[in-house]
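R.M. (postdoc): so does anyone remember the format we settled on? I'll just put the structure tokens first.
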């Protein structure tokens, strides 16, 4: 099994936040009660004074402060609440604590984080200062599955913004944050639809002769290939997966990769190419795009 999603019902999501909760706000707006893909039903914070808790309460969402008294105590309470509330997916949004390997293992594949850089570059803290000091001309944000490292888990989706002359850490933070408010909900929809998942043993069997090719891809390239793979499975073309990853699956393979690109970022040239594909492929691609772009 590649992914537990889609569930066949709306997902119950929890958000863990330590501060202002602006990305929490974006998630609350994207997944309100009645959303067909899921809703945020619980917000947890290690900081009783976090404004994120007020944002949740203002929308009628259960908000619980678990004051930090050590990782073991916090995680024990958090795990109990996640179980009692029947949570399907946990979203970290400005949560400033490292979770233990046992917590991550229990939730692997159902635990996402948002980091304000183009991972694997600039993991950790003080990202915008480091980006400016390095003279980068582009930066962005990454939604990724959480693993046992710091900002090292498989990438779900990335978004990019330019670094402009005269930028400061503050101007860069505002620009990236604006991007994140759109990026995180889109990444969550991809996960809930089963179009994003961390690689596992089942993938090796599915890819067969294309496995070495997949292994050689960079961390930034692998999410695109996984989306294309998931689309082919969704379209009933699972047998074409190995050939598609090697560029040998004809219109179905091309349609899957064009759609996988467009699910991350719209592009007029790619839309035009998609429109030129055989009708059967084009209609399936357009349906997938509508489901992500207009989820309600």
């Amino acid at each position: 099994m590649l992914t537990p999603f889609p569930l066949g019902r709306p997902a119950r999501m929890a958000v863990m936040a330590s501060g202002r909760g602006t990305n929490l706000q974006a998630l609350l707006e994207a997944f309100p009660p009645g959303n067909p893909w899921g809703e945020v039903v619980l917000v947890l914070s290690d900081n009783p004074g976090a404004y994120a808790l007020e944002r949740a309460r203002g929308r009628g969402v259960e908000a619980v402060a678990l004051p930090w008294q050590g990782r073991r105590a916090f995680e024990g309470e958090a795990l109990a609440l996640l179980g009692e509330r029947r949570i399907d997916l946990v979203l970290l949004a400005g949560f400033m604590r490292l979770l233990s390997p046992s917590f991550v293992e229990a939730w692997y594949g159902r635990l996402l984080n948002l980091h304000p850089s183009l991972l694997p570059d600039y993991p950790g803290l003080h990202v915008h200062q480091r980006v400016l000091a390095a003279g980068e001309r582009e930066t962005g944000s990454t939604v990724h599955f959480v693993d046992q490292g710091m900002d090292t888990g498989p990438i779900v989706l990335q978004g990019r913004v330019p670094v402009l002359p005269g930028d400061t850490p503050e101007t860069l933070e505002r620009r990236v944050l604006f991007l994140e408010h759109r990026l995180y909900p889109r990444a969550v929809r991809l996960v809930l639809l089963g179009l994003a998942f961390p690689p596992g043993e089942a993938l090796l069997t599915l890819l067969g002769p294309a496995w070495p090719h997949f292994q050689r891809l960079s961390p930034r390239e692998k999410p695109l290939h996984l989306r294309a793979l998931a689309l082919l499975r969704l379209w009933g073309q699972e047998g074409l997966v190995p050939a598609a990853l090697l560029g040998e699956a004809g219109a179905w393979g091309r349609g899957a990769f064009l759609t996988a690109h467009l699910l991350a970022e719209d592009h007029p040239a790619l839309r035009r190419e998609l429109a030129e594909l055989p009708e059967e492929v084009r209609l399936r691609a357009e349906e997938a795009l509508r489901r992500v772009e207009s989820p309600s």
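R.M.: ...and that's the designed sequence above, right after the tokens. Also worth knowing: The chain has a mean pLDDT of 96. The chain has two domains: 11-192, 201-293.
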